[in-house]
Amino acid sequence: MDMLNAMQTFVAVAENSGITAAADKLGCSKAIVSRTLSLLEERLDVRLLNRTTRKVSLTEAGTEYLEHCRAMLEQNAEIESRFAEKGLEPQGHLRISSPMTFGTQHITPVLPEFIDKYPKVQVDIQMTDRFVDIVEQGMDLAIRIGATGSDSLIVRKFAETQHQVAASPELIEKMGGMPKTVEDLKSWPTVAYSLRTAAPSWQSSRVNPELERARSNNGEAILRLAEAGVGLAYIPTFIMEDSIKAGKLKVLLPGIAQESTPLYILYPHRRRLALKTRVFIDFMVQKFSNM
Q1: One domain for residues 188 and 204
Q2: The CA-based dihedral angle spanning residues 52, 53, 55, 56, taken in that order and rounded to the nearest 10 degrees
Q3: Same domain for 271 and 251
Q4: CA 109 – CA 96 distance, rounded (Å)
Q5: Three-state DSSP class for 176?
Q6: pLDDT in tens, 260-288
Q7: Is 142 found in the same domain as 154?
């Protein structure tokens, strides 16, 4: 039994909600589709579909097996695509959406190496701290920090950073010295990231809104306000590492008021993924996996 063909048939039936529609999509007879499903269920010794004269529906086992089949078919398609692309040269316009600060501090410095390696790829990097619908905007991929913002895209983690609390030496002195517990931070003025949708894992509740002295949707702006002593900031370490080294900011409650934050690459689909996009994803993983 050709298991790959059986998986493709099963997925077609599940996604088209019927044997007739699946047969039309696959270009074969209903009898072949029905027979393939029966053989597959016999081999797995489990019922995958509930069949009536009008429709089919997935059983609990069928729902679980559907996800397995999709993953296996995607992996196979990706491998076949990679073999087919051997000897080809990536080319074309590569449109990237990136957060402003991460884009300027980390992606832009490594782009010359990527462009030198793939001279036929023209890079168009659009920087914004708002979530962009990459399909609607015609982007090839997007870089996201923490939240992905969509369930319809393929998500690949390529690095990890830390969010930490920091404040200027002047603010620390004004507040009576370094805090000793998370509770101590509740009386401190803050500079907030306006796109954050939930309180940090270490914080039982949001900071008192009356203590929020400023807010922004951009990490660089929050950094500068924190350096000026406006309030404490809770931002990724890659944004504030230079300020920490220069003594403009100090980390508060290290090891306590912090959380690991994944960095993701999002793209529309795996199948028939353009070579220019694939090589950029691999390049980012190579460059930042040890960040």
Answers
A1: yes
A2: 40
A3: no
A4: 15
A5: coil
A6: 889 999 998 755 688 899 999 999 999 99
A7: yes
Assign residue 46 a region (left: φ > 0; alpha: ψ between -120 and 50; beta: otherwise). Answer: beta
Q: Report how many domains make up the chain.
A: 3
> What tens digit of pLDDT does each residue of 31-59 get?
999 999 999 999 999 999 988 767 788 99
User: What values do phi and psi take at 140, rounded to 5?
Assistant: -80, -35
Cα gap 15→121, rounded to integer Å: 36
- 189: domain CATH number? 3.40.190.10
Helix axis angle for 275-288 and 108-117, nearest 10°, is 130
- CATH number at 27 reads 1.10.10.10
- pLDDT > 60? residue 206: no
Nearby residues of 165 by Cβ (< 8 Å), 6 or more positions away: 185, 232, 233, 234, 251, 252, 253, 257, 258
Examine the pLDDT at 4 and tell me if it is beyond 60.
Answer: yes
245 and 186 in a common domain: yes
- Judge residue 233's burial from the number of C-beta atoms within 10 Å of its C-beta, 0-12 exposed, 13-18 middle, 19 or more buried: buried
CA dist 286 and 48 (Å) reads 40
Q: How many CA atoms lie within 13 Å of 98's alpha carbon, on the beta-carbon side?
A: 19
At 250, give phi and psi (nearest 5°): -130, 140
Say how far apart CA 254 and CA 166 lie, in whole Å.
9
- 235, 163 Cβ separation under 8 angstroms: yes
Q: For residue 46, give the amino acid letter.
A: V
Query: Is the confidence at residue 291, as pLDDT, over 80?
Result: no
Domain, as residue range, for 185: 163-259
117 and 136, same domain (yes or no) = yes
Same domain membership, residue 125 and residue 79? no
Q: Do 278 and 248 share a structural domain?
A: no
- pLDDT recorded at residue 204: 64
